[in-house]
Design goal:
Number of helices: 10
Strand content: 15-25%
Strand order of the largest sheet: 2-1-5-4-3
Oligomer: single chain
Number of strands: 12
Main location: membrane
Organism: Bosea vaviloviae
Largest sheet: 5 strands, mixed
Shape: rod-shaped
InterPro entries: BphY/WalK/GraS-like (IPR050351), HAMP_dom (IPR003660), HATPase_C_sf (IPR036890), HATPase_dom (IPR003594), His_kinase_dom (IPR005467), Sig_transdc_His_kin-like_C (IPR004358)
GO molecular function, one term: phosphorelay response regulator activity
Order of helices and strands: HHEEEHEEHHHEHEEHEEHHEE
Radius of gyration: 49 Å
GO cellular component, one term: membrane
Number of domains: 3
């Protein structure tokens, strides 16, 4: 079956359900109607019998010629008519003996449930030749009036009435179903079809902005669905364009990765010769330069096609955190920076259990962000620009804070602060630094967050301590 097609559409289902519900309602209405028709039919016969009794009372000697009695009974449609007037019973019958009846119907005190039951019995029971006895309330001075009639005419009349009801019900059902179908198709089914068609068109080409739905001005749930779908499609289209750009960027990175790794390896070999120099300052920086080049080579080897690194599982070991912070400060040239005051408040005895290479990258990214913000805006209220790194053990976890007194993080950047290409806090930045730092911290089982601060920005890194089993 072709995609998007179903055996029975929503419109057809609604039409069939409407017809079924209307027919069900007509059935519920039919039963009281046919019972009422039966009652009225019998009351009409009783009224005609009452007239016949009055004629009989006005006749001389309360007797009529046999031919007149036959015409009266034929007009009533009864075999016999009886009434009690003033304690005396009047009988009008062509038979000397009253016929045997199949059932007695007393309309004087019959309930609706009894009437419904007897009406259904007449319709469903097989026809028979035996008459029925009907008793009803009389008019004038008579106590009651009763007749003996054949049931077949009543059954035929009820069947004709039922056929008419069925025909009218079908017409009402078709008309009602048609009107409901048109209304629902205009108000619900049509817009839902447009939503479904738009979703399938957008699925075929999600990066095409012309496939994004144009919401209508409806204020109901369908209008809300259209607006929500439009927002989702715009967000998804933007994400897909970003991922496509990243894929293209990753392809370009993968092409240059091999050559870059070779150049870094060559630089590392040449840097090895700096160890033998007589310059004390160069000899002090040479091991760190060689280690940095080694990390860069490993980083290039781990570069993926999407332009970012697939980070390895951290190799945890105990390190002196203060020394690691000092090394990153030297990498950024903070000791020689006269425009910025750097304070390393990490206790010398504090030992951190982490991957030193990955934690060095976390510190470097956080500290570089602060340096860039301070270099661009300076300290708060024209004070001396200051970068501070603190750390402490609290409740078995390591809490590290990198803070500055710069302009702080803009409000617009806080929502996507740790997302690549979306959380940049500097003009023209990519936001990769914070994204990489967040990923490395998560690999350690920790958490990174921006703490509220009245001055500057404070980034807090929380790393878990040792597990109870010593791991």
């Amino acid at each position: 079956m072709p995609r998007g097609l179903t055996r029975l559409g929503l419109s057809a289902k609604l039409l069939l359900l409407t017809v079924l519900f209307v027919m069900l309602a007509e059935i519920l209405i039919y039963l009281p109607s046919v019972a009422n028709f039966r009652r009225n039919w019998l009351n009409d016969r009783l009224a005609a019998a009452q007239v016949a009794v009055l004629v009989l009372e006005g006749a001389p000697d309360e007797r009529l010629p046999e031919e007149s009695e036959a015409r009266l009974l034929m007009g009533v449609g009864a075999r016999a008519i009886a009434a009690r007037v003033g304690g005396a019973r009047r009988l009008l019958s062509l038979d000397s003996m009253p016929p045997t009846v199949a059932r007695k119907v007393d309309l004087r005190d019959a309930s609706w449930m009894t009437a419904l039951k007897e009406a259904v019995e007449i319709l469903v029971a097989p026809p028979h030749d035996m008459p029925i006895r009907v008793i009803g309330q009389a008019m004038g001075g008579a106590d009651f009036v009763e007749i003996v009639i054949d049931e077949a005419p009543l059954r035929r009349a009820m069947l004709v009435f039922s056929g008419n009801i069925l025909l009218i019900s079908l017409l009402i059902s078709v008309l009602t179903a048609g009107l409901v179908y048109l209304a629902l198709n205009w108000m619900i089914v049509g817009p839902i079809r447009q939503l479904a068609a738009n979703v399938m068109e957008f699925e075929a080409d999600p990066e095409n902005p012309h496939r994004i739905i144009e919401p209508s001005r409806r204020a109901d749930e369908i209008g809300e669905a259209e607006r929500a779908l439009a927002r989702m499609q715009m967000t998804l289209a933007g994400e897909l364009r970003t991922k496509k750009h990243l894929a293209e960027l990753g392809l370009a990175v993968s092409k240059v990765n091999h050559d870059l790794r070779n150049m870094l390896a060559s630089a590392q070999l040449m840097s090895d010769q700096l160890v033998d120099t007589r310059d004390a300052k160069i000899r002090r920086f040479a091991p760190r330069l060689i280690a940095t080049l080694g990390r860069a080579i490993e980083f290039c080897q781990a570069t993926l096609a999407y332009g970012r690194a697939a980070e390895a599982t951290p190799l945890l070991r105990e390190i002196a955190l203060r020394q690691l912070v000092a090394e990153q400060a030297e990498m950024l040239g903070l000791p020689e920076n006269k425009q910025l005051s750097f304070v390393n408040e990490v206790p010398a005895e504090l030992i951190a259990r982490c991957d030193p290479d990955q934690m060095a990258r976390v510190l470097l990214n956080l500290m570089r962000n602060s340096v860039q913000a301070l270099a661009r805006e300076g300290g708060e209220s024209d004070s001396q620009a200051m970068l501070t790194v603190k750390a402490q053990q609290l409740d078995g976890s390591l809490h590290l804070r990198v803070s500055d007194n710069g302009p702080g993080v803009p409000q617009r950047a806080k929502a996507n602060l740790f997302q690549a290409f979306r959380g940049s806090v500097t003009p023209g930045g990519t936001g990769l630094g914070l994204a990489i730092a967040a990923e490395l911290v998560r690999l350690h089982g920790g958490m990174i967050e921006l703490e509220p601060s009245e001055t500057g920005a404070v980034f807090k890194v929380t790393l878990p301590g040792r597990r109870p089993n010593g791991n």
